[in-house]
Amino acid sequence: MSSNIPNESSKKRHFLLVAITGGIASGKSTVALNLQSPEIKLIDADSLAKIAVDQVPGVLEAIVQAFGAKVLDQNQRLNRSLMAEIIFSDSRAKEKLEAIIHPEVQNLLQAELLTIPQSVKIVIYLIPLLVEANVDCSRFDLIVSVLTEPEIALERIIKRDNCSKELALKKIKSQASNDQKLKISDYTIFNNGSLLDLKENVRYFAEFLKGRIPC
Fold first, then answer.
1. What are phi and psi of 121, to 5 degrees?
2. Whole-model pTM?
């Protein structure tokens, strides 16, 4: 689980690198998806994490060594539902899992950034755990937080995941607070209203981004 991938930040990028973060059920994925265009590429940290577990040699083995064979399903793949239950109930388990996966996610991101075509002017990196993973924020040209009031997020999680209030609260508490996200943000999108309201906010943000595209 090592990498010799060169650092894309060592040379001048031809694109704006924007991190979008936010709490669970904040609508950050909706924001990112609504920004996509021929000139804007979306990279999803959660998708990279799945690739890391499923395809990077040694990652799944390290998870099994840390948590035991119980985290595997009948096909000897990671049982993500069970793993989620474990980390939402135990902050130390969450930190242990992140220590295994996050370095590999950074390697995969680095490799992808080196292949961005000249036609792409903005790269959106959707990273829910930007604060929690202690990612070097200086590598991003802009950090955007999508925030929702905890009470609204709680209702959305219960409805979306069909889970108990207790589990929904654990999911919220396992992540950084809105105040923590605000401290690192260059731009904030509040999503406490309707989908139409959110899309209007995204439209304003898209116009803001256009003015930041490198010449």
1. -105, -20
2. 0.90
CA 16 to chain centre: 17
Within 8 A by CB and 6+ apart from 22, the residues are 28, 31, 128, 145, 146, 147, 148, 181
| C-alpha angle 87-88-89 in degrees, rounded to nearest 5 | 90
**Which has more confidence, 27 or 214?**
27
Instruction: Specify the 3-state DSSP secondary structure of 37.
Output: strand
What phi, psi does 186 have (nearest 5°)?
Answer: -95, -25
Give the integer Cα–Cα distance in Å for 85 and 102.
19
pLDDT at 162 over 90: yes
Lowest model confidence (mean pLDDT) among 9-23, 80-94, 111-125: 9-23
Two structure tokens written together for 23: 């709490």
Residue 164 CB-half CA count within 13 A = 4
- For 128, 130, 165, 193, the CA distances from 133, given in Å and listed in that order, are 9, 6, 26, 29
Local confidence band at 132 (pLDDT 50, 70, 90 cut-offs): confident
